[in-house]
Design brief:
alpha+beta; single chain; 3 domains; 33% strand; 5-stranded antiparallel β-sheet; Jelly Rolls
């Protein structure tokens, strides 16, 4: 009898242990759907999906490895220095949940307990179906010559009315080879011919971006009204989230104009292929009375700093005085493959030091326009500082040159050279900006 009691007690204890198994449907899917599936889906930017149980089970051991190592999700800023609104970062508990699931041999769990799979508009990470999509008019050839390839592409448009835009997402058609792009929304004069406009031109080697040349090539300069009017300037880099702006701000999408993609850079390839990018936008439900300003800064260098010598680690800096008070919405540090770290801070006239962003381990493949939870207000007279370190030694695993060789600095745009940029999206300061909620944009 005593043995029977012990057996029953043991069985009763075993029931809750079995019920506590970590399953995909109950425990892992909610983590993946929130943090991973925005990219890891069939039409997303990641190389494979993580939507279904089979998707995740197939790569379970890799999931455990890259999450424990915090390589994924790809959040590269130091949260102890400054946190941002849309960080893709798992908690210790979430990482442990994935590890337990793998240790439990990846059970699927009850299918009726699975969360609803997230639905995303095709091709974009915007939170709802875009109101406007501008697409390249045809496929752009990328030649398999194993060289850098740059183009300037024009997408003309004409609508029945002007729109206010408060979110925009650049969607590369060829994510593997697309390196970066900058783009302008331009309002053109009534006598500019949109129907006969060329599609694109290929930049010659070392050809700079030149407004006069580019505008004239596409016929954007009116003999009566002059050059086009820029209403927005944005950019795209690998890993970027959509640009979303607070209520009442954004940019004006004119009734008639051109979206001009400048310096669209494709990485070298040995196989002929194509790209067909598109730009998706969300229309604001209220007029965008506060225009977004794009501000880009680079270092001032001397003649002897135009090269990063082989087997060296060098530092470059940016110092900019802010003339008028601004509210900073996003911040984007940019370097190429020799980048090691990037730190930005601001010193106010009252003596305060404001941390802006710190990337302790630079990752060329994951760059971001980091969005603040609330705008960071920089009073007039503030000094904005940036410090970037470049590692041109064998200790840099991303160094494309083995052995290291001298690399040009700030003399070209392709990734065989190096550069340092600091880009901000800002509003002219208004009282109360300190309290604007940027976390819930798009929700």
């Amino acid at each position: 009898m005593k043995a029977l009691v012990h057996l029953v007690a043991a069985l009763m204890m075993a029931v809750p242990v079995a019920a506590q198994r970590t399953t995909f449907t109950e425990h892992v899917a909610p983590i993946l759907y929130t943090n991973c599936v925005p990219c890891h889906r069939h039409d997303g930017g990641a190389p494979f999906p993580l939507v279904t149980f089979k998707d995740a089970a197939k790569r379970a051991h890799m999931l455990k490895l890259v999450t424990e190592d915090r390589y994924m999700p790809p959040q590269r800023n130091d949260p102890a220095y400054r946190q941002f609104a849309h960080e893709r970062r798992l908690t210790d508990a979430q990482i442990a949940t994935i590890a337990r699931w793998v240790a439990d041999s990846m059970p699927e769990g009850p299918r009726h307990k699975a969360p609803r799979q997230p639905v995303f508009p095709t091709g974009t990470a915007l939170p709802r179906t875009p109101d406007v999509v501008l697409r390249m008019r045809s496929d752009v050839p990328i030649p398999g010559t194993n060289t850098q390839h740059y183009i300037c592409y024009a997408i003309p448009f004409e609508f029945d009315r002007e729109r206010s835009i408060n979110a925009i997402d650049y969607i590369p058609g060829n994510r593997l080879l697309s390196h970066h792009a900058s783009y302008q929304v331009l309002e053109v004069a009534p006598d500019v011919q949109l129907d006969s406009m060329p599609e694109y031109f290929v930049y010659a080697k070392e050809q700079p971006i030149d407004d006069d040349h580019d505008y004239r090539f596409f016929g954007l300069i009116s003999p009566v009204y002059g050059p086009p009017i820029e209403t927005f300037h944005g950019g795209w880099l690998p890993g970027m989230s959509p640009l979303m702006f607070p209520k009442g701000s954004g940019f004006r999408l004119p009734r008639r104009g051109v979206l001009l993609i400048r310096n669209l850079h494709y990485a070298p390839t040995t196989r002929d292929t194509t790209d067909r990018a598109s730009i998706a936008m969300l229309e604001s439900r209220t007029p965008a009375t506060r225009p977004i300003t794009f501000a880009a800064f680079k270092p001032i260098i001397t003649q002897d700093q135009t090269v990063i010598p082989a087997d060296s680690i060098v530092e470059h800096r940016i110092h900019v005085r802010i003339r008028d008070s601004i509210s900073v919405l996003t911040i984007n540090p940019h370097m190429h493959l020799l980048g090691a770290s990037f730190t930005v801070w601001a010193n106010t006239p009252s003596g305060d030091s404001i941390p802006m962003v710190h990337i302790p381990h630079w990752d060329f493949d994951w760059q971001e326009f980091y969005r603040y939870p609330k705008p960071v207000v920089l009073p007039a007279g503030t000094i904005l500082n940036a410090r970037a370190t470049f590692n041109n030694t064998n200790s840099n695993p991303r160094n494309p040159n083995v052995p290291p060789k001298d690399v040009a600095f700030e003399v070209g745009m392709d990734d065989s050279n190096e550069m340092m940029r600091l880009v901000l999206l800002v509003l002219a300061y208004q009282k109360g900006d300190e309290h604007l909620d940027l976390v819930r944009l798009g929700r």
